[in-house]
Design brief:
3 helices, elongated, alpha/beta, 5 strands, two-stranded parallel sheet, three-stranded parallel β-sheet
């Protein structure tokens, strides 16, 4: 029988980006920290260098941007993008500092 998911050993050298805005009322507070702990327990070999968490922006349940969207902290049910002067995509790819 074929495996349904990859082996957990494959995660050891992966990088993980976790984002949660302080104004997010959809995802409970503490979820980002729990997710960080979860990945560390799954076998990330060096959590301090492989897991980047950003949890101090006033964003709601949205994608944080540095150039478009509603003002940071003002949720828009149609757009889900907030201009928080933060480029999430670049950081999630490890191309800039947090």
């Amino acid at each position: 029988m074929a495996e349904k998911i990859s082996r957990l050993q494959n995660i050891q050298d992966d990088r993980v980006y976790i984002f949660h805005g302080t104004g997010d009322e959809t995802v409970r507070p503490g979820a980002a920290e729990a997710l960080e702990d979860f990945y560390a327990e799954l076998g990330i070999s060096d959590p301090a260098s492989q897991i980047l968490s950003k949890t101090d922006l006033n964003a709601t349940h949205a994608l944080a941007s540095d150039h478009s969207g509603t003002p940071c902290g003002e949720h828009n049910d149609e757009l889900y993008i907030e201009n928080c002067d933060y480029e999430r995509l670049k950081r999630s790819q490890g191309t800039t500092d947090s």
